[in-house]
Write a structure and sequence with these properties.
The chain is mostly helical and 158 residues long. It is built from 5 helices and 4 strands, in the order E-E-H-H-H-E-H-E-H.
């Protein structure tokens, strides 16, 4: 999800992967610009510090509702870089992206993200992963949070 912040999840064979601390798939702290802007996590050049809605507004001095073509493409490329890195490491073939920034920047964002994935994610030298917009709109985060809550209840009963 690329919105005010950048976050994510990892779903394999229909199951959400937790990881050791519950943060598997958190793409926000993948370095996409070495030596870039300082992130709240302390690192430099994290996707969060370069492509989140807060970062874009700070960098450009413009509201997210008035992006330039260049910033939409740049943001898409950075997200594609992070997604391509994960796809290469885990041999994945689909990236679903939602959030106000991604969906608001629309085709310009998604085309740039796909171009970046195509350039870097070539596991097995076949076709790269495909990036697609989330289809849940504004309800995506609520549905995801509900699904995690239901999963937690099932685990505590089992």
């Amino acid at each position: 999800m690329v919105s005010t912040h950048v976050d994510g999840g990892l779903v394999l064979d229909g199951d959400l992967v937790d990881g050791a601390t519950g943060n598997a798939g958190n793409v926000g702290h993948i370095i996409v610009e070495p030596g870039g802007r300082r992130c709240p996590c302390g690192a430099r050049g994290c996707l969060e510090s370069e492509a989140s809605g807060l970062a874009i507004s700070t960098i450009t001095g413009r509201p997210l509702t008035e992006p330039t073509y260049d910033i939409m493409r740049h943001t898409g490329r950075l997200v594609g870089r992070a997604a391509g890195t994960i796809c290469t490491a885990l041999d994945l073939d689909l990236v679903v992206v939602g959030g106000d920034v991604a969906l608001g920047f629309a085709a310009t964002f998604f085309n740039a993200a796909q171009e970046e994935i195509d350039a870097i994610a070539r596991v097995g030298h076949g076709a790269a992963a495909r990036v697609t917009p989330a289809r849940l709109g504004d309800n995506g985060p609520l549905i995801g949070a509900g699904a995690v809550g239901i999963r937690g209840l099932r685990r505590s009963r089992g």
